Amino acid sequence: MSGDLRAAVPLVLVGAGKMGGAMLAGWIERGLPANGVVILDPNPAPEMAALAAEKGLRLETTPPADVTAAVILIAVKPQVMDAVLPTLRGLIGPETIAVSVAAGKTIASIEAGLGARAVVRAMPNTPAQVGRGITACAANAAVTTPQRVLVTALLSAIGKVEWVATEDLIDAVTAVSGSGPAYVFLLAEALAEAGRKAGLPADLAARLARATVEGAGELMFQSPLDPATLRKNVTSPNGTTAAALAVLMADDALQPLMDAAVAAAANRSRELSAG
Ligand SMILES: NC(=O)C1=CN([C@@H]2O[C@H](COP(=O)(O)OP(=O)(O)OC[C@H]3O[C@@H](n4cnc5c(N)ncnc54)[C@H](OP(=O)(O)O)[C@@H]3O)[C@@H](O)[C@H]2O)C=CC1
Ligand SMILES: O=C(O)[C@@H]1CCC=N1
Questions:
Q1: Is the CB of 127 under 6 A from ligand 1?
Q2: Domain count of the fold of the chain
């Protein structure tokens, strides 16, 4: 295990759902010791209970009285945050770092609900499940440089990490990279449906669309070229791609649609801040 991660123990994960579970998988992969992790979830999924039993992780349904967290990672739904945070106060010591991944929940609301000094608001995404997420973070003034380093090490277990200068940027981060994987999956669905309408058997269209999105993502991952250059590399002069891109890149097509989608997600993030 990396020396950096050792300082995160005891690490309490509150909410072992899709996002919390993905993070847990990354930490275990990185060698965080099973006896250093406490999972807190009132109703863990059977797979999570099985994982805990297999790895020897401590799984609790109510906050344990004998733990002061070095790091508490809160991954419950935004709608239950205000009710859940006060129940976690017994886990917080003066040195505890609280990291919340809840969409829309502000640092101020987490400070107030939890009584923690050092608070990081983070926005990951589900490619974390395969170690290819990206998380952007904002910290309050109490977070020290070593604490930032520790949080970066923890979040690096599930992908790339960015820090933003001001918390208000997290709403736009949420709209781009937090929700963004869903837009890409929708693209795969829409491409498959368009292929079916163009005459392909539905299952073949689905396989072609899926492999195309997978391959394009992997190419972008491995290539030093920017997305625009990779796009141009597909586009033969006056060829088929140019014909399709003329539709997608028309003034009223994909860009304004994406602008509106991202603005809607960012607005929803701000609404969740209001409670
Ligand atoms: N999914 C995503 O792509 C992303 C999600 N997020 C954020 O992550 C958070 C979790 O989302 P997600 O993983 O999708 O949601 P899930 O519903 O999959 O996970 C939340 C988990 O928290 C559990 N829970 C509920 N109440 C408590 C409690 N009192 N103590 C401990 N655990 C509790 C839930 O149990 P039960 O199901 O029984 O209620 C569930 O297992 C949200 O705040 C979301 O905004 C951030 C970035 C991306
Ligand atoms: O949809 C949501 O609210 C969460 C936050 C970002 C991705 N999923």
A1: no
A2: 2
Which structure tokens are listed for 124? 């990951």
Note down the domain range covering 31: 3-170
**pTM more than 0.80:** yes
Whether the CB-CB separation of 166 and 141 falls below 8 Å is answered with: no
Decide the pairing of beta strands 37-40 and 11-14. Answer: parallel
Residues 68 and 163 placed together within one structural domain of the fold: yes
ipTM of the prediction greater than 0.95, yes or no: yes
pLDDT digits 0-9 by tens, 67-87: 999 999 999 999 999 999 999
Residue 177 Cβ inside 6 Å of ligand 2? The answer reads no
The size of the chain, in residues, is 275
Nearest atom in ligand 2 to the alpha carbon of residue 181 is 7
44 is in an annotated binding site: no
How far does residue 16's CA lie from ligand 1's centre (Å)?
7
* CA angle 17–168–78, rounded 5-degree value: 25
Domain boundary among 170, 205, 239: 170
Tell which one of 74, 174, 176, 273 to mutate to probe ligand 2, the residue whose CB is within 8 A of the most ligand atoms.
174
75 lines ligand 2 (CB under 6 A): no
Q: Which of 113, 145, 170 is the last residue of a domain?
A: 170
